[in-house]
Design brief:
Structural class of chain A: mainly alpha
Number of helices of chain A: 3
Order of helices and strands of chain B: HHHHHHHH
Distance between the termini of chain B: 58 Å
Number of domains of chain A: 1
Radius of gyration of chain B: 20 Å
Strand content of chain A: under 5%
Largest interface: A-B, 32 and 38 residues
Oligomer: heterodimer
Shape of chain A: flat
Number of helices of chain B: 8
Helix content of chain A: over 70%
Radius of gyration of chain A: 15 Å
Structural class of chain B: mainly alpha
Helix content of chain B: over 70%
Number of strands of chain A: 0
Number of strands of chain B: 0
Distance between the termini of chain A: 33 Å
Order of helices and strands of chain A: HHH
Chain lengths: 64, 250
Amino acid sequence: MSPITRAARAVWEFVVGDDPLTALGVVVALGATAVIAGAGAAAWWVMPPAVLAMLAVSLRRAAR
Amino acid sequence: MSGADLGLAVSVFLACAVEAVEALTIVLAVGVTRSWRSALYGVGAAVLALAVIVAALGPAIDALPINALRVVVGGLLLVFGLQWLRKAILRASGRKALRDEASEFASETAAARAAGGARPGFDGYSFTIAFKGVLLEGLEVAFIVLTFGASQHNIGLAAVAAGVAVLAVVLAGLAARAPLARVPENSMKFAVGVMLTSFGTFWGAEGAGASWPGGDAALLAIIPGLLIASLGLVQWLRRASVGSAVGEPA
């Protein structure tokens, strides 16, 4: 494994950790917020329920 | 100092104190069992490496346009904060073992003794373990200092809060001459997880173009709201645990 691959893997593990699905959920939720805000509508309400849903799903998977 | 600045200072202080307690346990273990001098060289080298990382990345992050910065930093804080919060909730609900500094210290000292006798002069084992411990625990703190500080355009305040936390832990460690087993680490991690996730939610949405009702005051609803929801999730997992235990065959 090259040093660059090792460094990239270390950064990935440091930031994303063992739950890549949550990281993907964060990107999708922020994207949805940007799309709704870009259309001129109120978009602040997207993130709070999305965050709670991600947390609950992540906990449910971890607790199994 | 604004409410957001206070939130920044408290979050960084708590996060840094928790990581410093964990690093102190590692350094104490190799220092007591092998070589204090080599362990402290390792600490110094790690602190230097962390200072270089913060000095190199800080100005680069600070130079980003505010919206791009907040969406990136908000996203990173969310990913990071949700990991802290998930682990803290699992620990609080009994689904994951609580971290115990006394047993961590015992396991580190056992490993240090098993590695053979310390060499006179410079002991590579003590240096490496102390260096790795402080660097790895410190990287999380550096990440939080940079992201939180840059979003508030106040890396200086974040760095001061981190420095005060490290100083407090080091002084407490010197006074106790033992791992700080009585520090409520898991509660502190719970609080840090709530703060990181709340600020990540706030800044991420702002960076993506949303406007919060009430501006910064929205944090006064987001933080307690997430705290209450997290405590509710703890209860939910406890009940699920009891329910599954009841349903299990004897």
